[in-house]
Amino acid sequence: xxGEALAFxxxxxxxxxxxxxxxxxxxxxxAVLWLALALTGTAGVFLLLDAxxxxxxxxxxxxxxxxxIVVFAIVVTERLVGERISQTSxxxxxxxxxxxxxxxxxxxxxxxxPLALERPPxxxxxxxxxxETVMTRFVLPFELLAVLMLAGLMGAxxxxxxxx
Amino acid sequence: MxxxxxxxxxxxxxxxxxxxxxxxxxxxxxxxxxxxxxxxxxxxxxAFARYSGDVTGMVFTVFTICITVTxxxxxxxxxxxxxxVRRTVTADHLDLLKG
Lengths: 164, 99
Known about the structure:
- The structure holds 2 protein chains of 2 kinds.
- Chain A is mostly helical.
- Chain A has helices spanning 3-24, 28-48, 52-81, 92-111, 126-135, 139-160.
- Chain A folds into 2 domains: 3-89, Four Helix Bundle (Hemerythrin (Met), subunit A), CATH 1.20.120.1200; 124-164.
- Chain B has a single domain (3-91), classed as Helix Hairpins (Orthogonal Bundle), CATH 1.10.287.3510.
- Chain B is 79% helix and 0% strand.
- In chain B, helix 1 runs antiparallel to helix 2 and helix 2 packs antiparallel against helix 3.
- The chains are: A mainly alpha, B mainly alpha.
- The interface between A and B is large, with 83 and 70 residues.
Protein backbone atom coordinates (compact mmCIF):
# COMPACT_ATOMS: atom_id res chain seq x y z
CA UNK A 1 0.00 0.00 0.00
CA UNK A 2 1.54 3.26 -1.06
CA GLY A 3 1.62 6.40 1.04
CA GLU A 4 -0.94 8.08 -1.19
CA ALA A 5 -3.43 5.24 -0.85
CA LEU A 6 -2.93 5.20 2.91
CA ALA A 7 -3.54 8.97 3.12
CA PHE A 8 -6.59 8.66 0.86
CA UNK A 9 -8.22 5.95 2.95
CA UNK A 10 -7.46 7.78 6.17
CA UNK A 11 -9.01 10.97 4.83
CA UNK A 12 -11.97 9.04 3.42
CA UNK A 13 -12.70 7.51 6.82
CA UNK A 14 -12.45 10.94 8.53
CA UNK A 15 -14.60 12.60 5.87
CA UNK A 16 -17.38 9.99 5.76
CA UNK A 17 -17.40 9.55 9.54
CA UNK A 18 -17.64 13.25 10.29
CA UNK A 19 -20.24 13.75 7.53
CA UNK A 20 -22.38 11.01 9.10
CA UNK A 21 -21.95 12.69 12.48
CA UNK A 22 -23.11 16.01 10.97
CA UNK A 23 -26.42 14.55 9.84
CA UNK A 24 -26.98 12.15 12.77
CA UNK A 25 -25.91 13.90 15.97
CA UNK A 26 -28.66 15.32 18.14
CA UNK A 27 -26.84 18.42 19.35
CA UNK A 28 -26.78 21.07 16.65
CA UNK A 29 -23.64 22.69 18.04
CA UNK A 30 -21.78 19.37 17.86
CA ALA A 31 -23.02 18.98 14.28
CA VAL A 32 -21.30 22.25 13.36
CA LEU A 33 -18.05 21.09 14.94
CA TRP A 34 -18.26 17.81 12.99
CA LEU A 35 -18.86 19.86 9.85
CA ALA A 36 -15.64 21.75 10.58
CA LEU A 37 -13.81 18.41 10.73
CA ALA A 38 -15.41 17.29 7.45
CA LEU A 39 -14.36 20.53 5.74
CA THR A 40 -10.82 20.15 7.08
CA GLY A 41 -10.77 16.58 5.75
CA THR A 42 -11.79 17.93 2.35
CA ALA A 43 -8.84 20.32 2.52
CA GLY A 44 -6.68 17.24 3.07
CA VAL A 45 -8.17 15.63 -0.05
CA PHE A 46 -7.30 18.79 -1.99
CA LEU A 47 -3.72 18.52 -0.73
CA LEU A 48 -3.67 14.92 -1.94
CA LEU A 49 -4.73 16.19 -5.38
CA ASP A 50 -1.79 18.67 -5.46
CA ALA A 51 -4.08 21.70 -5.02
CA UNK A 52 -2.37 23.46 -2.12
CA UNK A 53 -3.97 26.82 -2.87
CA UNK A 54 -7.48 25.32 -2.78
CA UNK A 55 -6.69 23.58 0.51
CA UNK A 56 -5.74 26.96 2.00
CA UNK A 57 -8.87 28.62 0.58
CA UNK A 58 -10.96 25.74 1.92
CA UNK A 59 -9.55 26.15 5.42
CA UNK A 60 -9.82 29.94 5.48
CA UNK A 61 -13.24 30.40 3.88
CA UNK A 62 -15.08 27.20 4.71
CA UNK A 63 -13.69 25.88 7.96
CA UNK A 64 -13.03 29.40 9.24
CA UNK A 65 -15.83 31.46 7.74
CA UNK A 66 -18.86 29.21 7.47
CA UNK A 67 -18.39 27.53 10.83
CA UNK A 68 -18.13 30.95 12.49
CA ILE A 69 -21.31 32.17 10.78
CA VAL A 70 -23.24 29.02 11.69
CA VAL A 71 -22.14 29.15 15.32
CA PHE A 72 -23.21 32.79 15.39
CA ALA A 73 -26.65 31.91 13.97
CA ILE A 74 -27.09 29.11 16.51
CA VAL A 75 -26.14 31.39 19.38
CA VAL A 76 -28.57 34.09 18.21
CA THR A 77 -31.55 31.76 17.76
CA GLU A 78 -30.68 29.82 20.92
CA ARG A 79 -30.46 32.91 23.08
CA LEU A 80 -33.81 34.17 21.87
CA VAL A 81 -35.69 30.90 22.15
CA GLY A 82 -34.07 29.85 25.43
CA GLU A 83 -34.27 26.10 24.97
CA ARG A 84 -31.82 23.31 24.31
CA ILE A 85 -30.25 23.17 20.86
CA SER A 86 -31.14 19.54 20.39
CA GLN A 87 -32.80 18.65 17.16
CA THR A 88 -34.71 15.69 15.87
CA SER A 89 -34.92 14.02 12.51
CA UNK A 90 -37.96 12.83 10.65
CA UNK A 91 -38.65 10.61 7.65
CA UNK A 92 -35.39 8.75 8.22
CA UNK A 93 -36.49 5.75 6.11
CA UNK A 94 -37.50 7.93 3.15
CA UNK A 95 -34.28 9.92 3.38
CA UNK A 96 -32.17 6.77 3.54
CA UNK A 97 -33.97 5.27 0.52
CA UNK A 98 -33.55 8.42 -1.60
CA UNK A 99 -29.89 8.88 -0.62
CA UNK A 100 -29.05 5.20 -1.19
CA UNK A 101 -30.83 5.20 -4.56
CA UNK A 102 -28.94 8.24 -5.81
CA UNK A 103 -25.68 6.82 -4.44
CA UNK A 104 -26.27 3.51 -6.26
CA UNK A 105 -27.05 5.33 -9.52
CA UNK A 106 -23.95 7.56 -9.31
CA UNK A 107 -21.61 4.74 -8.28
CA UNK A 108 -22.83 2.41 -11.05
CA UNK A 109 -22.39 5.22 -13.59
CA UNK A 110 -18.86 5.90 -12.29
CA UNK A 111 -17.90 2.22 -12.27
CA UNK A 112 -18.87 1.48 -15.87
CA UNK A 113 -16.91 4.38 -17.38
CA PRO A 114 -13.26 3.96 -18.27
CA LEU A 115 -11.71 6.63 -16.08
CA ALA A 116 -8.14 7.78 -15.79
CA LEU A 117 -5.92 5.83 -13.40
CA GLU A 118 -2.75 7.88 -13.83
CA ARG A 119 -2.29 11.59 -13.28
CA PRO A 120 -0.78 13.52 -16.14
CA PRO A 121 2.18 15.66 -15.07
CA UNK A 122 1.23 19.24 -14.31
CA UNK A 123 3.43 22.26 -13.89
CA UNK A 124 4.87 22.47 -10.44
CA UNK A 125 3.38 25.77 -9.24
CA UNK A 126 -0.37 25.28 -9.61
CA UNK A 127 -1.11 28.36 -7.50
CA UNK A 128 0.56 30.62 -10.03
CA UNK A 129 -1.30 28.99 -12.92
CA UNK A 130 -4.65 29.30 -11.11
CA UNK A 131 -3.96 33.00 -10.48
CA GLU A 132 -3.00 33.63 -14.09
CA THR A 133 -6.06 31.77 -15.40
CA VAL A 134 -8.40 33.70 -13.11
CA MET A 135 -6.94 37.01 -14.24
CA THR A 136 -6.91 36.25 -17.97
CA ARG A 137 -9.36 33.67 -19.28
CA PHE A 138 -11.87 33.86 -16.42
CA VAL A 139 -11.64 37.55 -15.59
CA LEU A 140 -15.32 38.20 -16.48
CA PRO A 141 -16.74 35.48 -14.17
CA PHE A 142 -14.30 36.69 -11.52
CA GLU A 143 -15.68 40.25 -11.69
CA LEU A 144 -19.26 38.94 -11.75
CA LEU A 145 -18.41 36.93 -8.65
CA ALA A 146 -17.34 40.13 -6.92
CA VAL A 147 -20.72 41.71 -7.74
CA LEU A 148 -22.54 38.58 -6.55
CA MET A 149 -20.68 38.50 -3.24
CA LEU A 150 -21.29 42.21 -2.65
CA ALA A 151 -25.01 41.81 -3.38
CA GLY A 152 -25.25 38.67 -1.25
CA LEU A 153 -23.47 40.13 1.75
CA MET A 154 -25.43 43.39 1.55
CA GLY A 155 -28.62 41.32 1.44
CA ALA A 156 -27.47 39.34 4.47
CA UNK A 157 -26.79 42.54 6.44
CA UNK A 158 -30.17 43.93 5.36
CA UNK A 159 -32.00 40.79 6.48
CA UNK A 160 -30.22 40.47 9.81
CA UNK A 161 -30.31 44.15 10.78
CA UNK A 162 -31.97 45.01 14.07
CA UNK A 163 -35.46 46.45 13.90
CA UNK A 164 -35.63 50.20 14.23
CA MET B 1 -5.40 5.79 -6.58
CA UNK B 2 -7.51 6.32 -9.68
CA UNK B 3 -10.05 8.97 -10.43
CA UNK B 4 -12.87 6.56 -9.55
CA UNK B 5 -11.93 6.45 -5.86
CA UNK B 6 -12.25 10.23 -5.52
CA UNK B 7 -15.55 10.32 -7.44
CA UNK B 8 -17.06 7.59 -5.25
CA UNK B 9 -15.88 9.33 -2.07
CA UNK B 10 -17.53 12.55 -3.27
CA UNK B 11 -20.74 10.65 -4.15
CA UNK B 12 -20.87 9.13 -0.65
CA UNK B 13 -20.44 12.53 1.02
CA UNK B 14 -23.04 14.04 -1.33
CA UNK B 15 -25.63 11.39 -0.44
CA UNK B 16 -24.94 11.80 3.30
CA UNK B 17 -25.57 15.53 2.88
CA UNK B 18 -28.77 14.80 0.93
CA UNK B 19 -29.91 12.49 3.72
CA UNK B 20 -29.33 15.33 6.17
CA UNK B 21 -31.30 17.80 4.06
CA UNK B 22 -34.26 15.40 3.87
CA UNK B 23 -34.34 14.31 7.49
CA UNK B 24 -33.32 17.39 9.50
CA UNK B 25 -36.13 19.43 11.00
CA UNK B 26 -34.04 22.39 12.13
CA UNK B 27 -33.42 24.92 9.35
CA UNK B 28 -29.76 25.35 10.36
CA UNK B 29 -29.36 21.56 10.22
CA UNK B 30 -30.72 21.59 6.66
CA UNK B 31 -28.17 24.28 5.75
CA UNK B 32 -25.37 22.10 7.17
CA UNK B 33 -26.50 19.28 4.86
CA UNK B 34 -26.42 21.65 1.88
CA UNK B 35 -22.87 22.65 2.83
CA UNK B 36 -21.83 18.98 2.79
CA UNK B 37 -23.38 18.49 -0.67
CA UNK B 38 -21.68 21.57 -2.15
CA UNK B 39 -18.42 20.53 -0.56
CA UNK B 40 -18.49 17.08 -2.17
CA UNK B 41 -18.98 18.67 -5.60
CA UNK B 42 -15.73 20.58 -5.06
CA UNK B 43 -13.90 17.27 -4.56
CA UNK B 44 -15.26 16.12 -7.95
CA UNK B 45 -14.13 19.32 -9.67
CA UNK B 46 -10.60 19.16 -8.25
CA ALA B 47 -10.25 15.43 -8.96
CA PHE B 48 -11.33 15.82 -12.60
CA ALA B 49 -9.00 18.82 -12.98
CA ARG B 50 -6.02 16.89 -11.59
CA TYR B 51 -6.62 13.72 -13.61
CA SER B 52 -7.21 15.56 -16.87
CA GLY B 53 -4.22 17.85 -16.39
CA ASP B 54 -6.39 20.95 -16.89
CA VAL B 55 -6.36 23.71 -14.28
CA THR B 56 -9.84 25.01 -15.24
CA GLY B 57 -11.60 22.77 -12.74
CA MET B 58 -9.56 24.20 -9.90
CA VAL B 59 -10.44 27.76 -10.99
CA PHE B 60 -14.10 26.78 -10.92
CA THR B 61 -13.61 25.35 -7.45
CA VAL B 62 -12.45 28.80 -6.29
CA PHE B 63 -15.66 30.23 -7.75
CA THR B 64 -17.93 27.60 -6.17
CA ILE B 65 -16.27 28.06 -2.76
CA CYS B 66 -16.91 31.82 -2.91
CA ILE B 67 -20.53 31.31 -4.03
CA THR B 68 -21.08 28.75 -1.26
CA VAL B 69 -19.81 31.16 1.39
CA THR B 70 -22.17 33.85 0.09
CA UNK B 71 -25.01 31.34 0.09
CA UNK B 72 -24.28 30.36 3.69
CA UNK B 73 -24.17 33.97 4.89
CA UNK B 74 -27.43 34.78 3.10
CA UNK B 75 -29.14 31.57 4.18
CA UNK B 76 -28.28 32.10 7.84
CA UNK B 77 -29.43 35.73 7.62
CA UNK B 78 -32.77 34.42 6.31
CA UNK B 79 -32.88 31.93 9.21
CA UNK B 80 -32.31 34.74 11.73
CA UNK B 81 -35.00 36.85 10.03
CA UNK B 82 -37.43 33.92 9.99
CA UNK B 83 -36.72 33.33 13.64
CA UNK B 84 -37.38 36.96 14.46
CA VAL B 85 -40.73 36.91 12.65
CA ARG B 86 -42.01 33.41 13.46
CA ARG B 87 -40.11 32.56 16.70
CA THR B 88 -39.09 29.15 15.37
CA VAL B 89 -36.39 27.61 13.19
CA THR B 90 -38.17 24.28 12.71
CA ALA B 91 -38.92 23.78 9.03
CA ASP B 92 -42.25 22.04 9.77
CA HIS B 93 -43.61 25.15 11.46
CA LEU B 94 -42.74 27.41 8.54
CA ASP B 95 -45.85 26.53 6.54
CA LEU B 96 -47.21 29.99 5.81
CA LEU B 97 -47.55 29.20 2.09
CA LYS B 98 -49.40 25.92 2.65
CA GLY B 99 -52.86 26.07 1.08
